[in-house]
Amino acid sequence: MLPSTKARKSTVLTLLKLLAASAAAGVLVALVVLPGIGGTGITAREAADGFMDMDVAEITRAPAEKTVVYDSKGKVIATFFDEYRENVQLEQISDNIKKAIVAIEDSRFYEHGALDLKGTIRALSRNATNGGTVEGGSTLTQQLAKNMLVNNTDSEEGYEAATEATLNRKLRELRLALHLEQTMSKDEILRDYLNIANFGAGAYGIQAAAKRYFNTTAAKLTLVQAATLAGITKNPYGYDPTLHPESALERRNTVLARMQQLGEITAEEAAEAHDQPLKLNEFHPKGGCEASSSPYFCNYVYNEMVNIFMGDAKPKDAKEKEELREKARKQLLRGGYQIHTTLDPKVQKAADQAVKYATEPTGWKVNVEAVVQPGTGKVLAISNSKKYGPGKGQTTINLAADEAHGGSVFGVDAGSTFKVFTLMEALDQGLPIRTSFSSPASTVVSGFPDCAYDYPPAVNGRLGGGSWPVANASDSESGTFNMKTGTWHSVNTFYAHLEKEVGVCEATEMATKFGMIRTNGQPLQPIPSQVLGVNPIDMVHLAAAYAGIAARGKYCAPNVITSAVGPDGKKVDLPETKCDQVVDEQVADATTMILEGVLTQGTARGLGIGRPAAAKTGTCENYSCAVFAGYTPNLAAATAYWDFRGGHAHPVTGIYGATIPGPVWQRTMSAALSGVEVIDFKAPVKDFGDVKEIPVPDVKGKPVGEAEAILREAGFTTRVAGKQVRSNAPRGTVARVSPGRAEPGTTVTIYVSSGRGGGGGPGGGH
Question: Residue 736 needs a FRET pair 20 to 30 A away by CA distance; which of 54, 74, 189, 665 works?
Fold first, then answer.
């Protein structure tokens, strides 16, 4: 039940006495907003007692401001904001809007304190008489205080507490207003109000409003424009000129009339402005990664900054983790940071054009790529053939990244690109390059030791225990191979034996040294089939690992941010970029020497880029994906191709690492390195027991029997591939042999021509 009129008037008198006796003027508004204070159980005296003791020190004066992200050349690539706002100083604001906002919102602003006593008493009297809130007495300072309370909340609960119609909320708002009047000048209060106010249409602050409606700046606002904007703040939706132009025009003219009444403009100026139309010139601000020219790189930066703001917090459950993440997200979107990144626009353009050339952007197949700088770990580009966004045929999942940076927990297999870590482990242990194994088309390898990990022994190359049956990608791959030829032709059975020789635990540890983890952030599973890349990984980390080989064994963790500065000029503490010499330079050099042959004599033959380069193809288990990773001394890239719906359920049958990912890599590297100085790899000085190779005789076009005799006479053993291949050589004659160079005693495979023309070999690499 509302108190009687007599009781309300009695409460008003009590509060007026308090006003005369103390600085607790804030309690007056309890009657303005909540005229039924007498029925709340809180007396006016009780409200006044705790008023001056309220803690408002935690409220910041800085309103939310947009965060801007730049590439390595200083060009803006993204803008993050919860509220479209750009703070400006008072001298950057037109006098027209200063006068207009004061005239319509608080004409006695420069005469009163936190409260306008005349306006408040008038409002109190009307409200008390009418038994409800008929008129408010809110000053610009009070409006600034209210906006600050709303602006500084980072949760739904906090927002409700800052806006609910309660006495405590109103008292806290008024206490903050008194604090502002005591610590700021009037001009500073006006400046902060103009920077924080909601001007509708998603524009917060006068600079954003000037751009949003008139595509100008706060400094250049005309009288007509200023009056329009000043009229909006009372009802940002109802007076939004893009939605309600007639109401906005009427409200603008009300502002002009008030300015004339107060003597801020002449009657002639008011009349001239009154007759003008709204004349909007709209600007539509675009924020977030969807509006970025490099959306997937942007997404990686976004998640990296959120992770940095979360720090080392260890939430006790998923709910607390999400709360911490939301707080960090708002810090990024509202904090007004200037973030400078490693993105190289030339490299990004090269990657973007390459991933799309062979893949339909709206289809289910997807091409992703990451490019990393050797020796620094700087991520120069992240690209995806699919358009970034929530629409059909689009995605906001950063498929080139791990889960911590917006990627999928499922990731993508690395395929045979992972063999390089077992190769390096073998070289690091001192096994000579000439180490060879009889490697049939399929075999069973057993006797793998258990690793010091929380996993049981392996079965079928996976968890469980037992032996591992392994097969090559096609029956053309069988014979005796060494560390060169086994790598060039990506022979699975050879690598199964090599992994057993060096140890699955040690091979997995070598991959870990080069930063390889599963997409969910967990360690690699040390199972025999890890050598074939069955652990789900991401292209950013794979590119960084290959960059580590290019840097002669110096691995640097991938990083995308070079600096981040807040609006106060204070630098954000960024994680230190970790670079470690994880393997001997000579081992890395020997690995590079072997991988160079993949591009000249192996599965990626023909995918060279006209300068020293090394690479490895990868075809994932059961054709669930195809991968390619390679590098020069100054650039490394990894690319993957698979079906967006899930590679194991929807295999890309017949696609090898050299079929689509290889040409994508080739196009990217060629364009990105155009005009860049050619640098040679360092040849290994140490003797790694290399193969004493001699050229294999050219027997193309000869009958198979004659070719076998020539090869045996040269010191090689021979085998004939089971299937004919497309070739210009006559049907039934030799199309080609593999390898082109080898040690005496090596098995040379003879490929027989079908006579139908073509490349002379099996399609794609492994």
Answer: 665
Q: Are 656 and 623 in contact, with CB atoms under 8 Å apart?
A: no
Determine the Cα–Cα distance for residues 484 and 495; give it in Å rounded to an integer. Answer: 11
Which DSSP state fits 241? T
* Rounded Cα–Cα distance for residues 231 and 649 (Å): 59
- Cα 231 to Cα 667: distance, rounded to the nearest angstrom: 56
Tens digits of per-residue pLDDT, 198-216? 999 989 999 999 999 999 9
List, for residues 6-31, the tens digit of each pLDDT value.
544 544 444 444 443 334 444 444 44
What stretch of H or E contains 53? none
Distance CA 737, CA 416 (A): 23
599, 549, 543, 542: which is closest to 423 by C-alpha?
549
| 52 vs 59: CA distance, rounded Å | 16
φ and ψ at 236, to 5 degrees? -55, -25
Three-state DSSP class for 753?
Answer: strand
Q: Which of 422, 613, 433 is nearest to 513 (CA)?
A: 422
The CA-atom distances, in angstroms, between 8 and each of 13, 44, 108, 125 are 9, 11, 27, 10
> Alpha-carbon distance 545 to 560, whole Å?
15
Contact 487, 436 (CB under 8 A): no
Give CA–CA dist 405/88, Å, rounded: 33
The identity of residue 116, as a single letter, is: D
- Residue 483: per-residue pLDDT: 96
Looking up tokens 């409700």 gives 160
Determine contact, residues 656/617, Cβ cutoff 8 Å. yes
Nearest Cα to Cα of residue 729 among 750, 766, 692, 702: 702
Among 619, 552, 596, 614, which residue's Cα sits nearest to residue 417? 619
Chain position carrying tokens 């196009």: 667
Cα–Cα distance measured from residue 411 to residue 535, given in angstroms and rounded to the nearest whole number: 9
Q: How far apart are CA 430 and CA 552, in angstroms?
A: 17
Q: What are phi and psi of 613, to 5 degrees?
A: -150, 155
The dihedral built from the CA positions of residue 729, 732, 736 and 741, taken in this order, carries a sign that is negative
Q: Determine which helix (DSSP H) or strand (DSSP E) holds 626, and give its type and residue range.
A: strand 626-632
Write phi, then psi, for 486 (nearest 5 degrees).
-65, -30
Report CA-CA distances (Å) from 332 to 67, 225, 296, 379, 459: 7, 32, 17, 21, 46
Q: Please tell me the predicted confidence (pLDDT) of residue 121.
A: 56
In this structure, which amino acid lies at residue 700? K
CA distance 383 to 411: 15
In contact, 753 and 760? CB cutoff 8 Å: yes
- Look up residue 590 and give its two tokens: 């020997």
- Say how many CA atoms lie within 13 Å of 345 toward its Cβ: 10
- Concatenating the DSSP letter of every residue in 316-351 gives SSHHHHHHHHHHHHHHHHHB--EEEE---HHHHHHH
Among the listed residues 148, 109, 115, 111, the one whose alpha carbon sits nearest the alpha carbon of residue 24: 115
Average pLDDT of span 52-65 = 63
